[in-house]
Amino acid sequence: MSTADIVFFVLAGVAPMGAVVALLSLAVALGNGPGVPGSYLIAGAALALFSAGYVRMSRRITNVGGFYTFAREGLGRRAGGATAYIALVAYNVATIGVFGGLAYFGSQVLGQFGIAAPWPVCGLVAVAMVAVLAYFEVTMSAKVLGVALAAEVLVLLGFDVATLVEHGFHGFSLRVFAPSVVLGGGFGVSLMFAFGSFVGFEATALYGEEARNPRRSVPRATYVSLAIITVFYLCTTWAAISAAGTDQAQRTAKADPSNFVFNAAAGLLGKGYADLMGILVVTSLFAAFLAFHCNTARYHVALARDGLLPRSLAKIHPRHGSPATASAWQLGLLAATTIGFTLAGQDPYLGMGVSLYGLGVLGIVLLQAVAAASIVGFFLRRREQESIWGAVVAPALGCAGLVGGLVVMVVNYPTLTGSDLTWVNSLPWALPAAAVIGAVAAGRRTVVPASAEKREGTASGNGPR
Predict the structure, then answer these.
(1) Contact at 8 Å (CB) between 53 and 352?
(2) What is the pTM assigned to this prediction?
(3) Cα separations (Å) of 261 from 55, 160, 195, 337?
(4) Which terminus of the chain is more exposed, N or C, with fewer CB under 10 A?
């Protein structure tokens, strides 16, 4: 994979169109209103600090295990085992959550064109497509993701430009960055949605074994992805608030949150443009589903290599180099979970999708915080010749910011799920439970790092492609 291929996977996993339509609207409606752009800026800054150490660590450890491998090397075997099982839960439920939204919105969009397609049918088609793409070499999926990503980004940039033309630069009020506005009522909710919008950017390290030059491709892809995501969200959230009016944005979003962005686009560019955005929400969610599935399958491979999952999941396709067995296992888990939620009477989007994606976001932010602490521990223990700022200070500050965001997310988890069911809002307890199980499992085994792991750029051809 080239740097561009990795960037496509990461940006597609972030799902810009889906995040803007689903999360931005709720952040404005339920959070700090016009201060949402400032919330996105704060989240981006915290993740930039985290990335300073993340890219340095990725140059030394190139492995599909991502956060798990970092924690194992930086904090020890038991911490690695705990992180491994948190990642197992977080990435699987996030993948299933995205799938629920895709099946639901796919059915809704087809219905607008007079095509009656129940959500289970849309879901089966999506699973079949992902199964085929994940079976072949990863660059094929990268090309599919690149096309989908380009379409949704261009359409959203068209909305940004239309807002600028209609309202001019004076319409983009700098008041949205005033501390009193950003830190006002609802800041915690907006910050939660902001961190949720960035979930997926950290996946660059998962593709180190498949990169042409991991020591260069992974760091570049990390910085490029984070910069693009931050600027893109900042401009688009600012444009959406400017289109509605800085003082009226929150009131408008509360009145119809699901159509907040669509209505703004229709007012500027016509109903046809808003309909196109609706179609691209589906393609965006499909791209995110594919990217999350590929990320999750690679975690399964890493854990199976180290004996924390059945060894059979570590098998790599001899021709395509894909984690075919892990991919099939993940899709089987998705099917079983979907059937379980359906039998429990839960809606695929509001019942299953939102709650599981919310749990996934919570888990991934926790993984980022653990990884930041692992990076600090790794470089302090080895005392290697690295910039103190980049290897220790920046990731330590990033860890503090992520922990703060994590606390906010836990407190506001019921807002994220939108549910008043006790069992749904108790799902975050699955994360500490997974950590305990993982630490015990790692402590009972002599975990030998996989032979496919590469350090300092040592070549290996055994990784998934």
Answers:
(1) no
(2) 0.81
(3) 35, 11, 20, 31
(4) C
Nearest to 54 by CA among 37, 69, 34: 69
Query: Range with the lowest mean pLDDT among 40-44, 82-86, 420-424?
Result: 420-424
Of the candidates 292, 60, 410, 43, which has an alpha carbon nearest to the alpha carbon of residue 190? 43
Strand, helix or coil for residue 387: coil
Residue 249, classed as helix, strand or coil, is: helix
Output the pLDDT for position 122. Answer: 93
Position 125 pLDDT exceeds 90: yes
Q: Which residues contact 300 (CB under 8 A, 6 or more apart)?
A: 88, 309, 313, 323, 326, 329, 330
Amino acid at site 358: G
Q: For 271-282, write each residue's pLDDT tens digit.
A: 899 888 888 888
Structure tokens given for 256: 């119809």
Quick one: which of 302, 406, 402, 387 has its CA closest to 53? 387
Average pLDDT over residues 153-174: 91
CA 216 – CA 212 distance, rounded (Å): 9
CA distances from 180 to 32, 35, 242, 243 (A): 10, 9, 18, 22
- String of b and e for 268-278 (b: at least 16 CB within 10 Å)? bbeeebbbbbb
Cα separations in angstroms, 281 against 162, 179, 230, 317: 19, 32, 19, 32
Residue 458: count other Cβ atoms within 10 Å of its Cβ: 8
Question: Element (H or E) spanning 196, and its range?
Answer: helix 187-198
Amino acid in position 67: F
Specify whether the CB–CB gap between 269 and 158 falls below 8 A.
Answer: yes
Name the residue with higher pLDDT: 144 or 351: 351
- Give the alpha-carbon dihedral of 185, 190, 192, 195, to 10 degrees: -140
Burial of 11 (0-12, 13-18, 19+ CB in 10 A): buried
Coil/strand/helix, residue 155:
helix
Question: In degrees rounded to 5, what are phi and psi of residue 464?
Answer: -65, 150
First-to-last CA distance in the chain?
8
Task: Pick 440 or 421 by higher pLDDT.
Answer: 440
Q: What is residue 460's predicted lDDT score, i.e. its pLDDT?
A: 35
Output 302 or 289, whichever has higher pLDDT: 289
What pLDDT was estimated at residue 269? 93
